[in-house]
Amino acid sequence: MTDGLLWNIYSAFNQNRIIKCIRESMLMVTPVILIGAFSLLAITLPIPALDYFVKNFAGGILVNLMQSLYNVTLNILSVYLTICVAVRYSRNIAPSVRDYFGPVFNALCGFFILSGSFVTKDYSSFGVTGIFIAMFSGLVAAHLYHVIYNSSYMQKFSYNYCSDIAVRNIFKMFTPSIITTLLFLLFNALVVIVGGFDSFHDMYTHAINYAFADMRREASSMLSYIIVTHLLWFMGIHGTNALHGVADDVFDPALLINQHLISQGLAPYELYSYPFWNVFITMGGCGTTVCLLISLLLYSNRSRSRDLAKFAILPGIFNINEILVFGIPVIFNPILLIPFITVPLICFSTATIAMTVGWIPPASYDIWWTTPIFLSGYAATGSIGGALVQLFNLVLGVWIYKPFVVLLDKEYNSASMHRLEEMKNLIKESRNTWEEVTFLDRQDVLGEAAREKAYELSRDIDKPRYKFFYQPQFDNHRKCIGAEAVMIYPDTNGDNIYQPLITQLIKEGGIAWEFEKNKLYMFLRDVNRLIRTMGPHSVFTTNLTIDTVLSEELFQFLRAIRENHPQLPKHIMIQIKEQETPRLISVNLVKLRRLHNLGYKLGINSFRMRNVNHEIMDSGIFQRITISSTITAAILKEENIMKTVVGIGNMVKNYPMIDLAGMSVTSDTQKNLLEVKGFNIYQGSLYSEPLPIERLEDFLRNK
């Protein structure tokens, strides 16, 4: 029931245009975060020897380089995020627009105005501190710009007197840009004049700190502080920095009191200090994200989440968690909000109890915030018990994060399943319209799902998840003469991904040869085994993309196979789709002839007699044509389909070396109609469904 409620909330968040825009923007700045996190790690090493080396090697060149890298990444992260939010939001509300300079320019102007950095000369808001302003400016500026740009008032203006289209577009941008920028200036001026603050950023920072003006070093105040800090993080506000003034007023005196008592030989008694916060509450960063990191590595079945977690291991050891907070993301993620707040609260409670009852002394020794877990617990308390409490909290935190990580995967997998189904339908539709469909360059949820699936496919090249089933093929006398390899690729939820979709994604992703080479290895291994069962005249077909078929790599690969197994090529048929045959101009037919001369058979599948010309047919290099399954399915229902079948049969009569095959044959009536029109090979449920190799061998023995 709780899972269902959280899932519904998460789905509602996903459908919200603003939340979706922010998440997509966070994804866009992930490379900046990754580079910045590692550069930050290099300049904040808690290991004295390494820190000394980095800061003094070659006159400090390493630390200067890393500092420069940090300055142009995480130190201005909010600037990058402002641009990304403006672009993503513009794409969502105005997908037909391709020039986003206007919204981006206005968003940056709005961000610089609201941050107040050029007034106060404090540029800290350009980094993670200004994330909230970045999101606010990007969304509001882009929305205002498009509303004004598309208003009826603006449509009255004519800029046709400008012959240069670029100049005309600049003039059209001027009015919405100046109005949007002036609105930001007026809003910020109102905050400055009425509130007496330096800027909008200064106003909400003061407002947050005011709520904790009377905070005391007691448990109830600390609990409130933890909750508010992490809620701010959830909303994209750097909670730790926003409440930095409060923390200084509370934590610094506690540390000084404890250190003074220790110097006097007395026992420290102040529990809540900066070391306490760094050691027990923010292990791995805000939200005790070292527990989230381990949970992702142990329990997530989503490759992108696991890979992101692997990237986050090294920074996470040193309590740098931007990769997880912005990459998963944790921000605006209601599923992770509960453990993100709950785990720090529980860690606070266990550490407080341990110190109160005297199991461990208060954390009284100042340590650098990047000190790794366990070492920090020991160093801050001066007791091995500090490390043991951290270990207990770590195990407990991982256990708490686990069900939410699993639930998050469940949501991702469900969304992915629906989007894969949409892409499958688009591919089927493209086969009817004969128009090529692409996915990786789309700027919508389908494009996002396609890019993630293509990434998974690229990862699976060396350790494939797929396997082959084999669809037996029969002649007119119901004798099994071979089989077609059908790739079964299970998704993370157990459902099989549509094979033509996989083919499309590997082709668009530029990994067709690497992916299909491994397919061929597996296929050839199975063929060697099946020949012994089916006999010396059996033929086994596999489908490859046109890019792979025409590649030099495939030719060299198949030539090496022939040299090692001279009898194998006559059992292998490589098929390409008819939609790809327009690429078979003379020079490419020469490439195909090389495969034919090696002894391999070639075929054309999904045939509908639309693209194949006489040059291809007269080349003599194809031995089989397999009609589309949609033709077989409609042969008894539609007269024009029957005419197509007749036309195909008449065409192939002129080429006696070519066999005609029918796919998805489900009844004797279909088979008999096809046989009359010249077909002599059939496959489909009339004979057998696709079978794994072991079951195929049993099937053939029983036959």
Give a written overview of the molecule:
The structure is a single chain. This protein is an alpha/beta fold and 703 residues long. It has 3 domains: 11-208, no CATH class; 215-412, no CATH class; 465-702, Alpha-Beta Barrel (TIM Barrel). The protein has an 8-stranded mixed β-barrel. Helix 3 packs antiparallel against helix 5 (61-71), helix 7 packs across helix 9 and helix 17 (289-299) runs antiparallel to helix 18 (303-317). The protein is elongated, with a radius of gyration of 33 Å. The protein starts with a helix and ends with a helix.
Write the SSE topology.
Blueprint: H1 2-15, H2 17-28, H3 30-43, H4 48-56, H5 61-71, H6 77-93, H7 101-115, H8 117-120, H9 131-149, H10 152-155, H11 165-195, H12 200-210, H13 219-234, H14 239-242, H15 244-263, H16 274-281, H17 289-299, H18 303-317, H19 322-327, H20 334-356, H21 375-381, H22 384-433, H23 445-459, E1 467-475, E2 480-488, H24 499-508, H25 512-534, E3 539-543, H26 546-549, H27 552-564, E4 572-577, H28 586-597, E5 601-607, H29 614-618, E6 624-627, H30 629-634, H31 639-653, E7 659-662, H32 668-676, E8 681-682, E9 691-692, H33 693-702
Parallel strand pairs: 2-3, 3-4, 4-5, 5-6, 6-7, 7-8
Antiparallel strand pairs: 1-2, 1-8, 1-9
Helix pairs in contact: 2-6, 3-5, 3-18, 6-7, 6-9, 7-9, 7-11, 9-11, 13-20, 17-18, 17-22, 20-22, 21-22, 22-23, 25-33
